[in-house]
Structure formats: C-alpha cells, structure tokens
From TrEMBL:
Residues 23-81 are annotated as: Disordered. Gene3D superfamilies: 3.40.50.360. SUPFAM superfamilies: Flavoproteins (SSF52218). Residues 89-248 form the Flavodoxin-like domain. One of its GO terms (molecular function) is FMN binding. This is Lipoprotein.
Length: 248
C-alpha cells in the first residue's frame, strides 16, 4: 500500500507540472521548449510541450487537433538521454507532439528507469495529415525512417519500456526502425509497450513488434500493453499504476 501511495504521489506531481506548463503555453503562440532535459536523473516535465493534453474530445477530434513543431518535439532542446550504470530498466520512446513523451515521463516516475528518446534524421511534418500520409507510405513500401540517435549497449537492462504513438492503427514507424536495427539486443528481455492513440486503441502495434522481432529470430517476453488517448495522458495515473503493478 505504501509503495502505491508513493508512486501515485510521483505521478500526481508529474501531472500538475505538465498541466501548469500547458496552461502557460496556451497564452502564447510559441513554446519556449519542446523536449525534456535531465534534472536529477528524472525527466523534467516542465519542459514537455503537449498542448493537446486536456483538450476536449471535440477540440482534439481524434488527434486531428494535435499540433507539432515539425521537429518531433525537439526544436529547442536535444533529445532526452538519461543513462546510468546501475539501472536494470530503460524507457525508449518516440514522440511527435508531446503526448507520448509525457506518458514516458510517468512510466519513468514509477519505474526509476533510464530514458532514451528516439529521433529521426528527417523529422515529420507539423501538419498531422502530412505526417500520416508519409507514415503510411513508409509502411507500405517497407521504408522505415532513419534514426538519428546513438543507442548505447542495452545489455544491462532486463526490462525495456517501449513508448510510441499509434499511426495508421499500428506501430509508429520510428519505433519500427528501432526494432529493425536493434532488435537483436532485446533478446531475452521483458518488453513493456505503452502508447498514445487517436481514440482507436492499440491497433496491431503489439503484433507488429512481435513480428519484427520474430523475423530476426529474437525471443523476448512482450507484456500486455498500456494505451491511452493522446489528449488524456494527464488522466493516466491510476490506470498506469495498475498496469505497472501487474508487469512481471
């Protein structure tokens, strides 16, 4: 019980911080920052720009109301990279508009995991429709985007939390790129997927993770996935705790 109270407190602090940041951003047409920085080994939620979080379903319109700075949440700051020598778990995530990044910060809050944010050499458009069109084309022709990140040795980690948005009812292409390139380093590990979506759930994303790894002959333990709509990440705390506590 005490563990759950402490974890809930950390998540509440994360939610209050991002809410304050989001409300402050709404008063300006530009944001001061768009990705998180290292702060005492924790993701700094005050630096996460996710103005769609908290929008009504009508305003958000199944993610059509989601904005992006056109730099995959990295127009002002470098990608998040929190690596230690003793952590046995790591959060690896891709976020275009901030929702998945905020969810990743909540996962780190309860897991005390290291963090590695994925970025791509050619960021996706700030226009949601153009991003969807590009992602669909990449998937159809099996042309995953090139990652622009140095992935360190993953051998120390027993659990890898994989965070991504759902695009076209399946796995976002940058995460597919990561699995294609580094899948062999995930052998024997526990993979815990978590994702944000436009209101239609996980789609085939977990099956696609399993398929990519299977094609490489990689055997990993994939847990049940956590999912939430992108405008409701600030409401994730209770259900995220339930998910986390049921992980192996």
């Amino acid at each position: 019980m005490m563990k759950k109270i402490l974890l809930a407190g950390m998540l509440l602090f994360s939610t209050l911080t991002i809410t304050a940041c989001r409300q402050g951003n709404q008063s300006s047409n530009t944001s001061d920052s768009s990705t998180t920085q290292i702060s005492g080994g924790k993701m700094d939620t005050s630096q996460i720009n996710a103005p769609q979080v908290g929008l009504s379903d009508d305003d958000w319109n199944n993610s059509l109301g989601t904005v992006s700075d056109g730099q995959d949440t990295n127009s002002e700051n470098p990608a998040t990279r929190i690596l230690t020598d003793d952590a046995d778990s790591i959060v690896i995530y891709f976020s275009r508009s901030g929702s998945t990044e905020l969810l990743a910060s909540k996962v780190q809050a309860v897991s005390n995991a290291d963090v590695l944010e994925l970025t791509v050499s050619e960021p996706y458009s700030s226009d949601y429709g153009e991003t969807v069109e590009r992602a669909n084309e990449e998937r159809e022709v099996d042309n995953d985007p090139v990652l622009n990140v140095d992935v360190s040795d993953l051998s120390q980690y027993q659990t890898v939390y994989l965070g991504y948005p759902i695009w076209g009812m399946t796995l976002a292409e940058p995460m597919a790129s990561f699995l294609e390139e580094y899948g062999d380093e995930l052998a024997g590990k526990t993979l815990a997927p978590f994702s944000t979506n436009g209101g239609y759930g996980l789609g085939s994303s977990v099956d696609r993770i399993a398929s990519i790894l299977s094609d490489q002959g990689v055997d990993a333990n994939i847990t049940d996935a956590y999912e939430i709509e992108g405008n409701k990440v600030d409401q994730a705390d209770a259900s995220l705790l339930d998910w986390f506590e049921q992980l192996p």
